[in-house]
């Protein structure tokens, strides 16, 4: 009896933990769902003023870089109207982008292949923006000492204000600025067909009489995204929107807004990247062509704080008088499509698809799901077939568990009799029950290990279904137009609840009346919770439950025949 109770307790705990994890993930999803993001609004611009070079901290190992902080002013908040001629608009096959001629900042990125919602297929999701709702921009520039450099507050000039990729494979958008000392700078954004990768190139033509020396930097600036609170005992569960870095030494690390406020990042590394990310999407600077970098973070002390994370090269590039030099960086701004992330050549970038501590289990599951999708061309059927394959892999373990349950169910009438006979003597009841187990060769805990082994796989699969942008707005079975949203007619949750109820009656009934009531109530409780879960998750639960019922019925019947 104790073994059966332990088994049920483990089941209850496992289901409870799983429910809490996916509930928290659903709250995160609700907070970040694209329909709630800023997609339009009044375009605004920082007021005039010189750049605060203290925003791009000096590398400790570089002694000849002096930042002119005496005459510098902080970059003010975006609160002034910008003339339309100050913006360059770019159209490619995947994005619509806007570049501000002041600083050459990338201030808007619309993702054409990712609508803001299934009901608005012609309205693209806005990843980067600078409007009344907030700020999320990519800035870059050059810094150094003893001269003026094209930081993210100089004013560039451009020949055109409209660019379109058309039938070309790549598109260069060039801007020019001439410093007072005669050095000519050209900042070029290179967009590529079928890519969210943007190359940012600085060309330095040294027309002065002295050698030019400088460093490249790139940073992402974002205002804090407020997440709505959740109901229930879990309280407020904000989703993760913030910075993340990757270095060869410390690997992947998230740095939330609070950590940026408490302490500025100052990290020297030979490789890696910095990013700002949110559910399904990421913007990341991928430094190139340098021997080392300094990763930094900071926050502007304004009413609406602007958080930034960035990189700066550690070794200066020198250009002799009359010569031309080049510095560059790579910006990725788009969805966390894993195949695209792999193609960036940045180690660890795929970790922005955050499966948590179960990443080693979740990654193979996603690989399998993606390969099944390449055959079915439908994510719903891919989920069904993946669930079937996982069930087949764990069939021997599940069979052991169900055999144990079948034996316990057979002994249930005798356990009820023992409980009634020794209702006043619990110790005697335990002794007699153990004798019965020994005589019948039953291991009451026999079904626990198989269940425990499968729990990490199930939870990892939940994370795969929650975090993969590939399933965003994926349709299935007519009425399910988006597997990342709840079932609009609650059909799957009801089927899921009915399947859990069927499983309840297949299992041996608890001897304890209170425990029996709790177990009977669980299917109804889970049905209510699952009403608001993404349909893809509920589909997995339904298929898994139906397969479990079929397997358990077969094994129980086979055991009964013996």
Strand count: 21
Kindly report how far apart the N and C termini lie.
23 Å
Taking all Cα atoms into account, the compactness measure Rg is 30 Å
User: What general form does the structure show?
Assistant: elongated
Strand content is 25-35%
Largest sheet: 11 strands, mixed
By CATH, the architecture of the largest domain is named Distorted Sandwich
* CATH fold category name of the largest domain: Beta-galactosidase, Chain A, domain 5
The residue fraction in helices comes out at 25-40%
Helix count equals 11
Number of domains: 2
CATH level 1 class label of the largest domain: Mainly Beta
User: Which ranges are low-confidence, i.e. pLDDT below 50, for 5 or more consecutive residues?
Assistant: 1-11, 23-84, 227-238
Mean residue pLDDT: 79
- Which structural category fits the helices and strands? alpha+beta
